[in-house]
Amino acid sequence: MPEHPQQRAGTRAERARMPLARQVVEAVAVDHGVCVRPVPVRRIDVETGETEVIDVPCGATLAAKCAPCAERAKRLRMTQCREGWHAETEPILAPDPPTAEQRWLAQVRADLEAAHARLVDAEPGTVDEQIGLTAEEVEEVAAEADEQLRRAGVRGNVKPERKRRRVRSTRRRQDAPDLPRHKPDPHTIGKVYSAPEGKRFRPSIFLTCTLDTYGRVHPDGTPVDPNTYDYRHAARDAIHFGKLVDRFAQNLRRVAGYDVQYFATVEPQRRLAPHLHMAIRGTIPRALIRQVAAATYHQVWWPQHDQPVYDLDRPPVWDAGAGVYVDPDTGELLPTWDEALDALGEDPAAEPAHVVRFGPQVHAEGVLSGSGDADRCIGYLAKYLTKSIDVCHAAATDAQRQHVDRLAEALRYEPCSPHCPNWLLYGVQPRDARDGQRPGGCKSKAHKREHLGYAGRRVLVSRKWSGKTLADHKHDRRAWVLAALGIALNQPEAERYAWERARPEDPDVLPLAHRLLRAVGERVRWRRALDEAKARAAGQTAA
After folding, report:
1. For 91-117, how does the pLDDT look when each residue is reduced to its tens digit (9 = 90+)?
2. In this structure, are residues 95 and 477 in contact, taking their beta carbons and an 8 Å threshold?
């Protein structure tokens, strides 16, 4: 009996609703915490010639890209926060002594520097008698020696470049209160307090600072009157928020009297303005913290950019012969970035283009180690780390989506850095100007919708927080797992293997679905072994 057309339509509809096999595999990978975007890397044994393709996790920090990797990064940050917040010993960050190889390379670099000094005033092409090189050849060899020093494990530059430093008045603004100062002490550990019954405790602080208002908003973060909401001010505050946080940390150390250490995260409020959550080791009086927040500001000494000089449909044009941007009508050269700053510095009545500061809402609470409040605060610090800024608070209504659109539009033509092409609208050449730049075409993260102006790091950790880098914490986690399984942590000989990026179309690279299934099976096996090891350890402890 032939199939009825309606039955065939129903079959096609049912089939269309069936998930693809790859989607099912990816869902299983997410359930087991396996990276869904692994990077195939080929490891080559230089002694035997054997090759092996190894999947390396993508390392994404946003769940929209890879949920398992983002969750893993979030947990690692929570561990980093927990280990440093109530530390009872000073972190040891003393550098290792120079090795024999580093000393030898530094001596070679010194000989090259001396040879270059001898050749500075010599005729072009003159060969140094001691090392047999010209000045140009000495510079090339010196650059190679600097690179070898970096590869040998030396931080910083042996011969740092001297940059022109612009000096401005350090006089504080008259509209900002003065900052108290205490004699600094190099310690980073918080003060220990004793209760009458003899119990000792070492409290710390969880701090939240927000920016000032740009207009009244509804509970969902949307402005009451979008026409009067100051989107330009909001955009500029978001762009320069990172500088304000840095200045706040500096001021806090000056007034606290000790080397304040912090673990901070930046996330948006419902109104989309970035605000700061900061775990501070040790205690500082709340009144003093509020005073520091009120006295902290960051001045942006850039050329004024309130009113555009050129229209979007007729911006400055590139003069290929002169290598500069010129007026599209007169051909007059636009001032360079340095020339614009020089004019600003020579004007005694000049004002900063923008001043960013915190608003009056500053909340600080004491937190004790090991308490439920500590776990709650750590969870709150990491709450939005796996989400981009524009989706931290879901834009569920038309008003919320329009609010995001208006802020993104305000950021589109706002200069975000000295290199931003948007400066062309205001009659200034961006720093290191080049052909092809156009207003509204800046590639910086500040202009992207998922960042909404804030292009800095979402996690800010002071250098002496835990005495470890994020890689150290990752290594500790791996070492713990291997120790629980009774596996020795053997580091392979670095010089024995060569690594190269494998392409998905290479014959020895399996299809992605196959690799994900293999990784899931391996993860299940390791998880089962780890659970058995934990059970054995618990049984031995109980016995």
Report:
1. 877 778 888 888 888 888 888 888 878
2. no
